Amino acid sequence: MKAFPRHALPITAAILLLSFTLAACGIDEFVYLYPVTNVGNNPTDSDDDSYKFFSFVTRDSDNDSEASGYFQGWEIYYRIYNSVSDRSVDTTAIETKIDDDPANAWSEVINTRKYKRMTLIQGSDTASLLSAPLLKGTSSDRAVTIRPLTLASYPAEFTVDGVQITGSGGADSFAWRSVTAVKAKSFDYDEIETSDADVKYNSSYGTDEWYLQAYVFAYGFDTSYKALYSEPKSLGSITIAQ
After folding, report:
1. Is 40 among the domain residues?
2. Looking at the domain assignment, is residue 60 inside a domain?
3. Which of 80, 106, 160, 231 is the least buried, fewest Cβ under 10 Å from its Cβ?
4. What's the pLDDT score for residue 126?
């Protein structure tokens, strides 16, 4: 074990004393959640169905070791646009917030830009929405792939390390939209309406194509048991064609 230099001992003692003093005064500890940094596929503006999926690698191991008891898992928030320019305005504002104030960038996504939670539907159950988190945390990093659309050659899927996830009854689970607190809809073109709460509709543009933009967050609780989100990471935008 490496010994501290003599002159460092008073400084070390002062730091320890300050830590104990803050704890004794009831000041909350700072909980940091590690964001996703590894995004595999970028589907933005691709017309190739083979690229219409989101993929990323979780940072479960870092969060489990550094924020054990607070880290709960992973959440994805999304918004649907019919205007590329509107999407660009929102994504630029979000990226600016990430650069300037990463700890509060989640609020720019969820509260200011009105993104909605991605949820899971198990089998034919469309009556209930999955509570947070979308993907529960573990102690090991995982590769996640989400195909939210049902396409001719590429059916919808939600896989973790290459394995399709299933619900408690064994039925496959798929990514759906949280249109309201109690109603879910699929991401397929025919299910999207201009009045849906998760849609930013611009009447100056048509609806031949929709653009599904998504962000992934680590999710958990702080020391006061309030919801806590990591810095958001863009998963890109999937084009939903008629």
Report:
1. yes
2. yes
3. 160
4. 53
> Nearest 10 degrees: CA dihedral of 70, 73, 79, 84?
100
Q: Is omega for the bond preceding 102 within 30 degrees of 0, making it cis?
A: no
For residues 68 and 66, give the distance between their C-alpha atoms in angstroms, rounded to a whole number: 6
Contact at 8 Å (CB) between 217 and 232? yes
- Confirm whether 1 is domain-assigned: no
Task: Specify the 3-state DSSP secondary structure of 136.
Answer: strand
- 51: Cβ contacts below 8 Å, ≥ 6 apart: 41, 43
From residue 135, alpha-carbon distances to 91, 97, 143, 170, 176 in Å are: 24, 25, 12, 17, 14
Instruction: Give residue 57's domain range.
Output: 33-241
Res 6: pLDDT: 43
The tokens for 113 are: 């830009």
Helix (H) or strand (E) holding 88, with range, is helix 84-100
* β-sheet bridge partners, residue 221: 227
Mean pLDDT of the region 223-238: 96
Tally of domains within the chain: 1
Model pTM score: 0.86
Query: Residue 196, SS3?
Result: coil
What's the one-letter identity of residue 102?
Answer: P
Inter-CA distances, 147 with 53, 106, 118, 151, 214, Å = 5, 24, 12, 9, 12
Residue 88 makes CB contacts below 8 A (sequence gap 6+) with: none
The answer to whether the beta carbons of residues 57 and 187 sit under 8 Å apart is: no
42 vs 131 pLDDT, higher one:
42
Give the residue among 98, 128, 96, 94 at the shortest CA–CA distance from 111: 94
Residue 139 lies in a domain: yes
